[in-house]
C-alpha cells in the first residue's frame, strides 16, 4: 500500500479498483490514525475515504482531470418564481404570449436539468447527439423566454448568451 501525505493529489476509484467514470480527483486534507483520509474535493466539499478507494496521481494528470470536472459543472436555471395568474392579470393583452412563454420556460428548465445531470454523469462525449441537440436547443430557448419576461418585468433576470459551445447557461 502506498504511503500518502497531506497535499497529495489523488483520483477516486470505484469498488473494482478502477477510476470512476467520469474521473473525480481530490487532494488529501487530513490523515487519521484509523486509516481514514479526509479528501478536499474540487467543488469545495470534503469527504472521508480509505486508502483502497483512491490512488496517487501526478500533477499533470490531476490538472487534466480537474479541468474536465470544472467543464462538467453547470449552474442550472431555476423555475420562474412568479404567480402566473397575478402576472397575467396585470397584463391582459399579453395573456396568450405570457402563458405560452411560461410553459416553454418550464419545459426548457426541465430539459436542462435532466440532460445536465446526464452530461455530468457520463461526460459530454458519451451522450447521443440527439440529447446534446435537445440540451443546446433548451439553452437557447430559455434565453428567449427569459428575455421575453425581462422585457415585461425587469425584476426577472435576463440570460446572457454563453461565449463557447460548452459553456453553461447562467441565470
Could you describe the 3D structure shown?
With 171 residues, the protein is an alpha+beta fold. The protein is built from four helices and five strands, in the order βββββαααα. Strands 4-3-2-1-5 form a five-stranded antiparallel beta sheet.
Write the layout of secondary structure elements.
Blueprint: E1 9-12, E2 25-31, E3 36-40, E4 46-50, E5 54-56, H1 59-72, H2 84-89, H3 95-122, H4 129-152
Antiparallel strand pairs: 1-2, 1-5, 2-3, 3-4
Helix pairs in contact: 3-4
How large, in whole angstroms, is the Cα Rg?
A: 22 Å
Please report the number of helical segments. 4
Distance, first to last CA: 46 Å
What characterizes the major β-sheet? Answer: 5 strands, antiparallel
Structural shape: elongated
As a percent range, the share of helical residues equals 40-55%
